[in-house]
Amino acid sequence: MMGSEKTYEIGDLKEPMQNINIKGKIVNINLRKVSNERGESVYHYGIIGDSTGTIPFTAWSLSSSLKAGDVVAIRNCSTRDFKGTIRLYIDSSSAIKLLPGEEMEVHRTSATMKIGQLSRSTPYVTVRGRIGKVYEREFERDGKKTTIYSTRIEDETGSIRLSSFGKMLEEGSEVEIQGARLSEYNGSLRISINENSQVTRTKLGIKIGERFLDISSISSPVGGVTIRAICISMGEKSGLLYRCSECNSKVDEIRCPDHPDAPIKYDIFAYFTMDDGTGTIQASAGSRAMLEILGIKEEEFNPQNRAINKNMIRERLHEKVLGHAFKITGDVREQNMGLSMRGFSISRISDQDITAMTLEQEADFQ
Amino acid sequence: MSRKREFSYWISARELRETKVQDETEEEGRKRVYIITPLGTRARRIVFCGVLTQKNQEDNMTRATINDGSSNFYVSAFANEYGMDVKNSLDSIEPGSEVFVMGRVNTYSNNDRLYVNINPETVSPTDAESRKFWAAKVRYLARRKMLAVTQARKNPSPDDLISKGYTREEAESAVRSVKHYPDFDLSQLQESVPADGIPETGKSESGNRNFVLDYIRNNDTDGMGCRYDDLVAASSNIGLEQGDLDELLNTLGSEGEIFEVSLKRYKII
């Protein structure tokens, strides 16, 4: 079917719309590979904008030579709701024409999003949440001193690292941040506040409890989330580690090459695959999270205790973790192999957890 | 070349038992066998928990029956290069214990019926809470898929289902179910796994087994073997459904207790 001849401005887009034409500038563009039972495929996603606003897009059929800054005319695309925001979809029936040399001003809009929904495809966002513990430090740039406030902000769906350049943040306060810049660092998402962002104190009355997610719904490296799943495989390199008590570096031998007189301390690196019936995710955890699961008291966990050795830890990991269901709270990170989770709290699933989960499930069918 | 982990599905033994369709494809030059369950799940690898109710341990192979409260999973672990560790794990678990299994489906047909066996990749003892957690999640996933299938029978469009809040996996499964099981009675799977996942093992299972063995022994009236139709009628009188009887006959045959002397005629060995 031929689309209409009308070219829409991005600020006028609603959902759902079919066979529409737009003209816009690519603000950012990313490539992602997906694997499913039909094999591997790739798609592009990003932000496109014009003088009236911006919109995230997903393109299943797009030239990989397109880059941020290109102005394009797109025919026969569509819009749909995706997790509460309007998204532009470009598929094989769409036609894309590059307009070389054409300039376009983009009016940056920042969509209001829950923290758990943030993704790299939305570079500017408005978030509302509660400020965690704040760390201040001075920073000098171009001879001018600025205070950086580092903290985390959280809502009912997740938590994320937050840096504010010059704008003071207070622990425990509830705020709305408009025009926060979203970026990724070391596999985790973070947002920053600069001179163009607005911070407003507000009353949200957020009730923050455990934020349970199905593994299949985890799509971005968000923090402070909880999964309930069964361990289906244990990583071969999981086990006991030696660390230098001075520099905390992992050491292969019984001494640290840089601090030969410093005693060695024990740590655990556990790396395993968790499956909740909707998907799998790689999870990892250290001794702080694992000792109780393995039935080892903290005061026993030291090199003077001969009962604890590499074989014993490896056997315990298989016996106590593989094939058992756990509740894991941690931060999701994005690395080369995809999303993974660093668990900072791990506990066996209890009858109370199953009852709570069943009640949530029943609510899903109401 | 690294390969992405193949997805493992959580399905009940009852849903597996009702599976009648297999789907063969060629991937990377090798034949791959998938099953398509009544709820449309297309699986090659499954994950389940249950109680180990029976184990037949031999040097080259261990057969085990694991019950999840809805029916039985049949597991065969082989003493070969890749399966030795798994066989040893299974051998070390005592009947009556709770067990976790991840494995590949293996199908075979007999009398136009598809049977699904599991070749385990991981077998591990588990605990009651993990088994109950698995059961609760399986019930939830199956219930969502049943609702999706009901919708898909009116409009088998994945996009329509996704717009109604189903995941892509649920939507595509529902459409497959409509295609392969258009008349399947979904109520059969409604309560397929008990809320607590506790199998009705022991008494009733061994009772059924003894009943079927006794009936075959005592009803070989013409020396040609006990008739299947007579067995079905007698079993229904004690509440043993035809599907469960078929499964039991299959198990007894595998264990060498009975053999099918001619079509639908059974004798005790």
What would you note in describing this structure?
The complex is a heterodimer of chains A (366) and B (269). Chain A is mainly beta and 366 residues long. Chain A is built from 3 helices and 22 strands. A 5-stranded mixed beta barrel of chain A has the order 2-3-4-6-5. In chain A, strands 9-11-12-14-13 form a 5-stranded mixed β-barrel. Chain A has a 5-stranded mixed barrel with strand order 16-19-20-22-21. The longest helix of chain A has 15 residues, at 351-365. The two termini of chain A are 39 Å apart. The relative contact order of chain A is 0.09. Chain B is built from 8 helices and 12 strands. Chain B has helices at 13-17, 84-91, 128-154, 158-163, 168-180, 203-218, 228-237, 242-254, and strands spanning 8-10, 21-27, 30-36, 42-43, 45-57, 61-67, 72-78, 98-110, 113-125, 226-227, 258-262, 265-268. The longest helix of chain B is centred in the middle third of the chain and has 27 residues, at 128-154. The A-B interface holds A 35-37, 40, 80, 216, 228, 230, 232-233, 273, 275-280, 318-319, 322-325, 348-351, 353-354, 357-358, 361, 364-365 and B 4-5, 7-10, 42, 47, 49, 99-100, 102, 122, 124-127, 129-130, 132-134, 136-138, 140-141, 143-144, 147, 163, 167, 169, 195.
